[in-house]
Design a protein that fits this description.
Strand content: 15-25%
Number of domains: 4
CATH topology of the largest domain: BirA Bifunctional Protein, domain 2
Distance between the termini: 32 Å
Protein name: aspartate--tRNA ligase
Shape: elongated
Largest sheet: 8 strands, mixed
GO biological process, one term: aspartyl-tRNA aminoacylation
GO molecular function: aspartate-tRNA ligase activity; ATP binding; RNA binding
Strand order of the largest sheet: 6-10-11-18-17-16-13-12
Organism: Tribonema minus
Number of strands: 18
Family: Belongs to the class-II aminoacyl-tRNA synthetase family. Type 2 subfamily.
Number of helices: 19
CATH superfamily of the largest domain: Bira Bifunctional Protein, Domain 2
């Protein structure tokens, strides 16, 4: 059986739902049904407690009402009768006005008309609006609420922007009542509200708001969507700077109780990475996460725009494959109507078939990549977004290296120019050093990279692929020696590259391949591809790849293919390393790793 406290909370929420339904012009039957539910809850309350439910603060009003009725009775039956008639007339007038307004609203909706409200973005509110005291409508989330005496302060949040809204009973011409103040101060955090008010200059800067020079004096406030009173985590806790406070629980109840009656500073536990991902839709509201994914979007857009301006065509390759993508084994397998199939590890083979064999010459793709690798590391995901490109070459595969270098410098420059506010917001929670990069992009051979490591005391073998720890060490050495966090290294050992990689014409043990690094971690793997079908078959056999599994791919090269090169970029890894973040899950909106497949 529900407790008294649970019933009070349920009655309060149902009352708010009824008010919202009336405000939004819901039909009478819907409102009537909600009222019926409210009455049932009140009846349950009386059954549990043995007393009639009285809303907080209403007992005094009921006593005053009884006293007024007693005085009216003492004033004589005639006077009482006259007052009753007057009250009935006023009530009828109010009902008629309300019905007329509802009919107008319904007529507007049926005619396809919308609201006449002109909503403003919080980020648009500034000093100029405050000087002319402009009236605005806003839709935002309630970040915090604070009641002081006869007034209430609400910090409203919309994306990265916040603004303070205030309302005081009896002040100004807004007609704010005590009940309105009480209603506003009781709105739960993270609720979505519509507010109409006047933008005014703040007497003193509001340090807690991004729009610090102004405040909104509320005239109307409506709850569009109420959040639970107790949340599994608070945005404040999830926004705490890295390393601040102790690692703790989700925030939930303890966090909700951390703020005092007079709006004292909230102190709650630090949100764990697991809890943040379990409730990612709340975690995404933090300023840092809002900024990370806006920058991620910017990287994709800059990638597309740069390549499209240079004649590249965007393609969309299939993600369902018969057999193993690229001939590898780390694939997610599935049943395809009775036949074995897998999810694509990359669009590699289709990039080649369209660019070199299909006549498009220069192609790119932005799409999902699936890797069935049981790697629980800071930089691996089982699903990530690949930014792939493939291009025909005329003289040398360095044409592709030059394009990659110029592409990344363009992306870095524009992110720094266009996303200064987002970079600052990320830096507040996750302090990082801005990326160092040079023009033209530094290029080392694999042998030169190994020599730098050997000179620094590392046991680096030029005949083998570079281990992760040596990659990081090389990144530190390159930064110290050349002053850059971003560089390209080419001529990798042929044995460390896929079967379709072109061998180096000057050394059969090496390949025309390259990797690109940021802060000592790989973000791109690329190469010149084999375009001669006989050599392609020879390399596939060396790797023991069944030729039948790549039959269509081989056929494409039997019909004529141009020399070509390309590479694949991991979007989440690029953003992680550009921002100096420590875990790739921070740059994946809903990460998929060996231990997580939800939400």
């Amino acid at each position: 059986m529900a407790s008294k406290e649970e019933l009070v909370a349920a009655i309060t929420d149902k009352g708010a739902e009824i008010r919202n339904a009336k405000t939004s012009g819901a039909d009478k039957d819907a409102v009537k049904a909600l009222v019926g539910e409210l009455l049932a809850l009140k009846s349950k309350y009386q059954e549990v407690t043995g007393e009639e439910y009285v809303a907080p603060g209403e007992q005094g009003s009921k006593d005053k009402s009884k006293a007024k009725k007693k005085d009216a009775a003492a004033g004589g039956a005639a006077a009482a009768g006259g007052g009753a008639d007057e009250r009935k007339a006023k009530k009828a007038e109010r009902m008629a006005q309300k019905e007329q307004a509802n009919q107008k609203a319904k007529a507007s909706k049926s005619a396809g008309g919308g609201s006449e409200r002109a909503y403003h973005a919080v980020i648009e509110l500034g000093e100029a609006m405050g000087r002319r005291e402009q009236r605005v409508w806003l839709r935002a989330r309630v970040h915090t609420t604070r009641s002081v005496g006869k007034g209430a302060f609400l910090l409203l949040r919309q994306g990265l922007a916040t603004v303070q809204a205030i309302l005081f009973a009896g002040k100004g011409g807004a007609g704010i009542t005590k009940d309105a103040v009480k209603y506003a101060s009781g709105i739960s955090r993270e609720s979505v509200v519509d507010i109409c008010g006047t933008v005014k200059l703040a007497p003193v800067p509001v340090e807690s708001a991004t729009q610090s020079l102004i405040e909104v004096h509320v005239e109307e406030i409506h709850v569009v969507s109420a959040a639970m009173a107790r949340l599994p985590l608070l945005v404040e806790d999830a926004s705490r700077p890295e390393g601040e406070g102790e690692e703790g629980g989700a925030g939930g109840d303890a966090a909700a109780e951390g703020e005092g009656e007079e709006g004292g500073a909230h102190v709650g536990p630090r949100v764990t990475a697991s809890t943040a991902l379990d409730y990612r839709w709340i975690d995404l509201r933090t300023p840092a996460n809002q900024s990370i994914f806006r920058i991620q979007s910017g990287v994709c857009q800059l990638f597309r725009d740069y390549l499209a301006a240079r004649g590249f065509v965007e393609i969309h390759s299939p993600k369902l494959l018969g057999g193993a993508s690229e001939g590898g084994s780390n694939v997610f397998t599935l049943d395809y109507f009775g036949s074995p199939a897998c999810l694509a590890q990359s669009p590699q083979l289709y990039k080649q078939m369209t660019a070199a064999c299909g006549g498009f010459e220069k192609v790119f793709e932005v799409g999902p990549v699936f890797r069935a690798e049981n790697s629980n590391t800071h930089r691996h995901l089982c699903e990530f977004t690949g930014l792939d490109l493939e291009m025909t070459i005329k003289e040398h595969y360095y044409e592709a290296l030059e394009l990659f270098g110029e592409l990344f410098v363009h992306i870095f420059d524009r992110i720094n120019e266009r996303y200064a506010a987002e970079l600052a917001a990320i830096g507040q929670q996750y302090p990082f050093e801005p990326l160092k990069y040079c023009r033209p992009t530094l290029r080392l051979s694999y042998y030169e990279g190994m020599k730098l490591l050997q000179d620094a005391g590392y046991d680096a073998n030029p005949a083998e692929d570079l281990p992760t720890e040596q990659e990081k060490a090389l990144g530190r050495i390159v930064r110290e020696k050349f002053g850059t966090d971003f560089f390209i290294m080419d001529k990798y050992p042929l044995a460390a590259r896929p079967f379709y990689t072109m061998p180096c014409p000057h050394d059969p043990n090496l390949s025309n391949s390259f990797d690109i690094f940021i802060r000592g971690e790989e973000i791109v793997s690329g190469a010149q591809r084999v375009h001669d079908v006989d050599l392609l078959i020879e390399r596939a056999k060396w790797w023991q790849i069944p030729l039948a599994s790549i039959g269509s791919y081989l056929d494409a090269f039997r019909h004529g293919a141009e020399p070509h090169a390309g590479g694949g970029i991991g979007l989440e890894r690029v953003v992680m390393l550009f921002l100096g973040l420590k875990n790739i899950r921070k740059t994946s909106m809903f990460p998929r790793d060996p231990k997580r497949i939800a939400p």
